[in-house]
Amino acid sequence: MEEGKIYERLESNAQSLYGIKAIVQRYMNSVEDVINIPKLIEIFAEQVKRNKIREIMDEIVLQSRVEFS
Hints:
Elements: H1 3-18, H2 21-30, H3 37-49, H4 53-68
C-alpha cells in the first residue's frame, strides 16, 4: 500500500475512533513516518550497497534488548 493511502487510512480510522477534529489532528501530527514493506526493502538494499549490514544488525540487537528489558 502506498504511503499516502496509509496516511489516509490512519486518519479515517482516527476520525472513526475519536470523532473530534482536534484530537484526530493531534494524532496525525504524532505520526512521524510511515514505512511500508517496499520502502523498508528499498532502504535495506541501499544500506547493503553501502556495506552497512554490521551496523544494521548491531542496531537491531540493541533495540531488541531495550524493547525486551
